[in-house]
Each structure stands twice: as C-alpha cells, then as structure tokens.
Design brief:
This protein has 293 residues and is α/β, with parallel strands linked by helices. Helices cover 37% and strands 14% of the residues. Helix 7 crosses helix 8. Bound molecules: glutamic acid.
C-alpha cells in the first residue's frame, strides 16, 4: 500500500491565523502518525485577492511552526490550462451552461424573488442562482457570446444529480449537525454552482477536486466550514471520473466572542503572535493540540 497523502491548501489572500495553524498542524501530525506524506498547495486562483507577499508569508509561518512539507509546492495559478481543459470536458457533457447575469443583476433577481417569499440559500448562506441561463436557446447563447457579453459557466445541478444519482463520502471528522461515517452528499443544496468565472477559467470547487486527484491526495483534512462543499466535490469527482479521498472536517478555532477567525483581524495572525513573543509550542497549546513529539 502506498503511504497516505495529506495536504494543506491555504489561499494567499491574507496572513495565516490560528485557525490555519490548527489545520496545518493537524495535517502534519496525522501524516506523521500514519507514515504518510504532507503536500502544500497554494490556492491562488483569485488574482484580485491573492498576493505574492502572502504566499511568501505562508512558507515562513509554516516553517516557523515546524511543519515540513514535501518539495514541489503546487500553485494553482500555474495550472489554469489544466482547469480550462476540465471545464471543456464538463461542458461536453451538456451539464454546463453560460450565465450572463452580472452580480448586480443576480442581487436584483434575488430581491425580487424574496419580495414574494424566501429564496433558498446555499450552505454558505449565498442565494442560489436565480437567473435565466438555462432557459436560453443555443442561438441566444451564441449571440450573447458573439456580442462579447461576459458570462460565468454554471453546472446544471438538477441535471447533474439526475445523471449521477446518490453520492456519499467517508467522514472521519464531524459535520455541523454531528454527521460522521458515511455521509450522504446533498449537492442540490448548492443550486447551479459556478464552475468557471468570468475572469478566471475555474472555481474553488473545480480546482480543488482536480488537484486533490492529481496530487493523489488520500486524506482531506480541513475546517468544518467546508463540510458541505464536499457534496459538490463528490459530484464533480464523479462527473470527471476522479477518485474520492477520505474527509476529515475539524472544528474551527473561534475568537473569544465565538466568531470564526478572519484574515482581516491581525490579532490572531501567526506573525503578530510571533512578534508578540509566542513560540510554536504556545500556538499548539492555544489551539488545543497536544505538544509535538
Ligand atoms: N483554500 C481553501 C481555504 O484556504 C481550503 C480548501 C480546502 O482545504 O479544500 O480555505
């Protein structure tokens, strides 16, 4: 049996905080305990928010924590062609459609719908796609594209679910409602998710499943805020013929008021804590991990 493969996959859109330290150290500890490998992936597809100085800080902060990862960091922005190719593959199944509404139009459509009752929201609290993209004829789509109208590509979720049927994943951690063991995926809760954005030929959901498969990741260990995203990940894995890793979603580290930590709050940033004199052992203790061996 090849050794298990774990990964830590931060986005360089701010400095790492205690929550990232917890996730990275948990991956490191689990990989070490299992005689496995730990990979590092930089999830930087959002060119407007990601910055090289934050990427450099990720390496520095992780090294300071004493986390060792295998060389050959994978940087997602280096692989946009690969994601483009996967988008084409999905598009060829007929399950993807162009959605031409701008963000402002989507907000207006949702407000209209909500005027006459609640409009469903996804597990992250964002309204489901309310637009008309699926109703357009092939000619209407071609005309809009030929006219240079920007669009995102979305997955026709109902059609995709009808095609693949019921899906599940193996959860070693726990979901927000205590879900563990074999968990049934609920991709319909997400509506017609974005597969590729106007300005980026991919999306978080698509690039994460492609990279986990390419890097032969066997164990995805990440925060509980991504628990229900796994529904979309299982669906995309199935559509693209990719293997399913085992998942372990861990509790989030919260501030004194019980709020999820944010990259914009410097008080829990690792570099701030380090500047204030904290040691890596202090960080482990702060997040409730046992001292390292
Ligand atoms: N890049 C994501 C984040 O920083 C994590 C993605 C994942 O672990 O699947 O929140």
């Amino acid at each position: 049996m090849p050794p298990p493969v774990f990964r830590f996959a931060p986005s360089p859109n701010g400095y790492l905080h205690l929550g990232h330290a917890y996730s990275a150290m948990m991956n490191f500890d689990l990989a070490r305990a299992a005689g496995g490998r730990l990979l590092l992936r930089i999830e930087d597809i959002d060119a407007t928010r990601c910055r090289p100085e934050y990427e450099a800080a990720i390496y520095e902060d992780l090294e300071w924590l004493g986390i060792a990862w295998e060389p050959q960091v994978r940087r997602q922005s280096d692989h946009l062609d690969l994601y483009r190719e996967a988008v084409d593959r999905l598009a060829s199944t007929g399950l993807v459609f162009p959605a031409f509404e701008s963000r402002a139009e989507i907000a207006r459509l949702v407000a209209d719908r909500e005027a006459s009752g609640a409009w469903p929201r996804d597990p992250d609290g964002a309204p489901l796609y309310p637009g008309q993209g699926k109703q357009l004829t092939a000619d209407e789509r071609s005309a809009l594209i030929a006219a240079g109208t920007p669009y995102a590509l979305r997955l026709d979720m109902a059609a995709a679910v009808a095609q693949v049927g019921e899906l599940s994943w193996h959860e070693d951690g726990r979901g927000p409602g205590g879900e563990t063991g074999l968990v049934r995926a609920q991709p319909l809760d997400w509506g017609d998710v974005i597969i590729a954005r106007k300005e980026t030929p991919t999306s978080y959901h698509l690039s994460v499943v492609i990279d986990d498969a390419l890097q032969a990741v066997t164990h995805v260990v990440r925060g509980a805020d991504l628990f229900w995203s796994t529904s979309v990940h299982r669906l995309l894995q199935t559509l693209l013929g990719l293997p399913a890793p085992t998942y372990r979603h861990h509790d989030l580290i919260r501030d004194a008021a019980g709020r999820k930590l944010s990259k914009s709050d410097s008080s829990t940033a690792l570099r701030q804590l380090r500047a204030d004199g904290a040691t890596p052992a202090d960080i482990r203790a702060l997040v409730g991990l046992a001292a390292s061996a």
